[in-house]
Design brief:
It is globular and about 50 Å long. By secondary structure, it is an alpha/beta fold. α4 links the parallel β4 and β5. The chain has 2 domains: about 120 residues, Rossmann fold, CATH 3.40.50.2300; about 90 residues, Arc Repressor Mutant, subunit A (Orthogonal Bundle), CATH 1.10.10. The protein has a 6-stranded parallel sheet, with helices on both faces. It is built from 10 helices and 6 strands; from the N terminus they run βαβαβαβαβαβααααα.
């Protein structure tokens, strides 16, 4: 299996150096570039074509929000994982809207960063659990304003949706929503990563969902996973 290629984007050299030293001790991870601002990050990403860009938000010049948005056009194959000091709802939603598929604060454990990198590299979404509750709060606010047709205002939507899934599909959905990769899910359930991928495809077809972010929202609002 090829290494996950990473570039580190942070305006503090000491942070980049520490992250690189740690990440390169982890099997299957390779730091292929560094940048101190968004402009440099775009150039380095075009040159190195990384799998994952670990991106700070607040930087001089082009910040992480602008860089993440531009990167969707210049390096669409690269997944952006925000790594920031900001445990802030506004930055959280702005970064996701800009195209990031992961959000982690610098207060997180080093091991969680590795999990997040592996997760987004596999095409999944990784949101720090303490922050992911904002997705649920946002969804509840929207439902309160405009409930889906036929839904009582005091009911949570999607409660019937789980009934269309098999036991195995529920297990896969729960693991996906918790940020696990296909190989990790396969290892835990005793099935191959390809079988996990087929389950994911069937789940999305049955629920009429179209992205990992929608799977996470569904799992939260149906109570399949809880946010602490």
């Amino acid at each position: 299996m090829e290494n996950i290629r990473i570039i580190l984007v942070d305006d503090h050299e000491i942070v980049r150096t520490g992250l690189k030293s740690y990440l390169e001790t982890q099997p299957g991870l390779q730091v292929v570039g560094e940048a101190e601002d968004g402009d440099t990050a775009l150039r380095v990403a075009e040159q190195t074509r990384p799998d994952v860009v670990v991106m700070d938000i607040t930087m001089p010049g082009m910040d992480g929000l602008q860089a993440a948005q531009r990167m969707k056009e210049t390096s669409p194959e690269s997944k952006v994982l925000a790594l920031t000091i900001h445990a802030d709802k506004q930055y959280f939603f702005q970064m996701l809207a800009a195209g990031a598929t992961g959000y982690l604060t610098k207060q997180a454990a080093a091991e969680e960063l590795v999990i997040a990198i592996r997760s987004v590299a596999q095409g999944n979404v990784y949101l720090q659990p303490a922050l992911a509750r904002w997705l649920l709060e946002d969804y509840q606010r929207l439902v309160a304003i405009s409930p889906p047709e036929g839904l009582p205002t005091n009911a949570m939507p999607g409660s019937k949706g789980l009934q269309v899934l098999s036991k195995r599909e529920r297990q896969v959905l729960e693991a996906v929503a918790q940020g696990h990769t296909n190989p990790e899910i396969g290892g835990a359930l005793g099935i191959s990563p390809k079988t996990v991928a087929r389950h994911r495809e069937r789940i999305m077809n049955k629920l009429d969902l179209h992205s990992s972010a929608e799977l996470i929202k569904f799992a939260i609002r149906t109570g399949l996973i809880t946010i602490q």
